[in-house]
Amino acid sequence: MKKFLSEGKLLLIGLPVLLWTMLPIYHICLFAFNAKDKGFSGKLWPSDPTLQNIGIVVQQKHFYLTHFWSQIGSSLLIALTAGALTLFVATTAAFAISRLRVPGGRFVMNAALFTYLIPAAFLAVPMYKAMGTYGLLNNRWALILAMVTLASPYAIWVLKQASDKLPLELDEAAKIDGATPWQLFRLVYLPLMVPSLVAIGTYAVLLAWNEYLYAFLLLSREEHQTLAVALGHFLNADDSPWELLMTAGLLYALPPAILYYVFRKYMVGGLTAGATKG
Amino acid sequence: MTTATASMLEHPAITPKRMDAYAKWGLLLIIPYALVFCIFVIYPVFYGLSLASNPESYRKLFKDPVFFRSVINTFIFVVVAVNVKFLIALVLSGFFIRTNWWIKILSVIFILPWAVPSIPTILSIRFMLNPEWGVINTTIFNLTGNDGPNWLNDPWIALGMSMLTHIWKSLPFWTLILIAGRLAIPAGLYEAASVDGATSWQKFKFVTWPSLKTLYLTSTILSMIWTLGDFNSVYLLTGGNPADLTHVMATLGIRYLRLDQVDMAMATIVCALPFVLPLAYYMMRRLSKPTEADAVGA
Question: pTM score, two decimals?
Answer without folding.
Answer: 0.87
